[in-house]
Design a protein that fits this description.
alpha+beta; Rossmann fold; about 35% helix; HisRS/HisZ; 2 domains; 16 strands; protein biosynthesis; aa-tRNA-synth_II/BPL/LPL; EC 6.1.1.21
């Protein structure tokens, strides 16, 4: 039987992985000036971590987590998202004693069992950032502004930042009861998921992706109309800060996100084309109670996660121009003496950071030149036994066809001079 990859996962091959590299490099470049530092998180954690943080009634916990019992009898889950792991690490390593505001980012695969579709896989990749330790609305605005700066750095301008407030432990409970009363009138029209869990978590109805349920959700009470004074003032301050930072946004009163730990500001960035109905590139928001729920100190937090596959699918083609790395030099070596001398030169050039290729099979001059041409090498270095005897090598520019002589005693310096020329 032919062995193939499991449905919903994919190999990221050479020719495509360069896109991941470019996005990851841009994230590191943009996040660094804001003070964010990278954290590497485990691929799997205790199942209870995700059940407690994400919420028992979410689709992720009820349907999508990859959970198993290991040989020691512990229940383990492949991480479906990164925030819970960051919070666990923050508490475990007592980062709250290091600084007033801890800024962390992570990159890597997440795992959810769901129907594969455009931009959505069972093993998918995220870049996430978390700011832990401040309730200031300036943090909300700054992190969202940083995210938009990342998209602009990658040439992505056709996106929309949508924001909402989910209230706090003071104003959300009465809103939940109001929402439940309103939903009860539509129970015979809602999907089975919504009818089975609206009592436990009615906000999930607002997040349902079934078209009929989405239409009903538009008629339900909006949490933005039932915020307490503190949440109204906080959300107004977030909007004012975004405006002062020149970060465009729109209000989306239906936006609730899919995880239970969010409070106050929540947001999504959506793409305008290429992803169909599932067009969210990233999302996030404030989660001021999660650290305390895990027995840590009171710690207000704000963060986001970007779906890398969706981001790559949304970026314009111009982003990938000249992304493939082509050899700087191809060494054509003819004869045993030339091979010995040439191999030493190649290693010296590679140690200096130059990408050098050669024909390992040692074909004819013509066949080696064809290989150099197919690989679109910038230059070809030609060394034969006669060139070894004369002490003169030849360097050919494959762009304009110009060929120059190079003194063997100064060949490294002379080759690098040509390679540094644009």
């Amino acid at each position: 039987m032919k062995i193939q990859s499991i449905r919903g996962v994919k190999d990221i091959l050479p020719g495509e992985i360069e896109k991941w590299h470019k996005v990851e490099a841009a994230a590191r470049r943009v996040l660094a000036p804001y003070g964010f530092q990278e954290i590497r998180l485990p691929i799997f954690e205790s199942t209870s971590l995700f059940k407690r943080s994400i919420g028992e009634t979410t689709d992720i916990v009820e349907k999508e987590m990859y959970t198993f019992t290991d040989r020691g009898g512990d229940e383990i889950t492949l991480r479906p998202e990164g925030t819970a792991s960051v919070v666990r690490s923050y508490i475990q390593h007592k980062m709250h004693g290091q600084a007033q505001l801890v800024k962390l980012y992570y990159m890597g695969p997440m795992f959810r069992y769901e129907r594969p579709q455009a931009g959505r896989f069972r093993q998918f990749y995220q870049i996430g950032a978390e700011a832990l330790g401040s309730a200031s609305p300036l943090v909300d605005a700054e992190v969202m502004t940083m995210l938009i700066a990342l998209f602009r750095d990658l040439g992505l301008n056709g996106v929309e930042l949508q924001i909402n407030s989910l209230g706090c432990p003071e104003c959300r409970p009465p809103y939940r009861e109001l929402l439940k009363d309103a939903i009860r009138k539509h129970l015979d029209e809602l999907c089975s998921n919504c009818t089975s869990r609206y009592e436990r978590n009615p906000l999930r109805v607002l997040d349902c992706k079934v078209e009929r349920d989405r239409e009903i959700a538009l008629t339900l009470p909006r949490i933005s109309d039932h915020l307490c004074e503190g949440c109204r003032e906080n959300f107004a301050a977030v909007q004012e800060a975004l405006t002062s930072m020149d970060t465009p946004f729109t209000l989306n009163t239906q936006l609730v996100r899919g995880l239970d730990y969010y409070t106050r500001t929540t947001f999504e960035v959506v793409g305008t084309e290429g992803l169909g109905s599932q067009n969210a590139i990233c999302g996030g928001g404030r989660y001021d109670t999660l650290v305390e729920e895990f027995d840590g100190p009171p710690t207000p937090c704000f963060g986001f996660a970007v779906g890398v596959e969706r981001l790559i699918a949304t970026l314009p083609e111009s982003t990938w121009q000249d992304i493939a790395k082509k050899p700087d030099l191809f060494a054509v070596l003819m004869g045993e003496k030339a091979k010995r001398r040439g191999q030493a030169l190649i290693q010296t050039l590679r140690a200096a950071g130059w990408y050098v290729e050669l024909d390992y099979e040692g074909g004819s001059m013509k066949s080696q030149m064809r290989k150099a041409n197919r690989q679109e090498c910038r230059f070809v270095l030609i060394i034969g036994d006669n060139e070894i005897e004369s002490g003169t090598y030849f360097l050919k520019n494959m762009t304009d066809g110009q060929q120059v002589s190079i003194d063997s005693d100064q060949c490294i310096e002379m080759i690098e001079t040509h390679l540094k020329t644009p």
